[in-house]
Inverse folding.
């Protein structure tokens, strides 16, 4: 099983974001440490418009928010 290439650089994975520990651990197992990292909202934003648009309130399971950020960047609103 492969893991996300951004593990060592990702503030979420490095516990820099505010999130309840159990939820954080669950999301790490579901996204960062599994083959599902390609479904991660943070990775989607980073790979589509740039890591500078990945904010500290974006969690791996927030795909709707990720798509909103991407469309705002593409429309020049961010
Ligand atoms: S939160 Fe997303 S970008 Fe960060 S390490 Fe996990 S899968 Fe990768």
């Amino acid at each position: 099983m492969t893991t996300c290439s951004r593990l060592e650089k990702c503030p979420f994975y490095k516990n820099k974001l505010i999130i309840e520990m159990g939820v954080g651990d669950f999301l790490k197992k579901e996204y960062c440490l599994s083959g599902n990292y390609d479904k991660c909202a943070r990775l989607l934003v980073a790979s589509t418009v740039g890591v500078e648009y990945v904010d500290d309130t974006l969690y791996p399971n927030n795909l709707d928010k990720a798509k909103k950020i991407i469309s705002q960047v593409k429309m020049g609103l961010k």
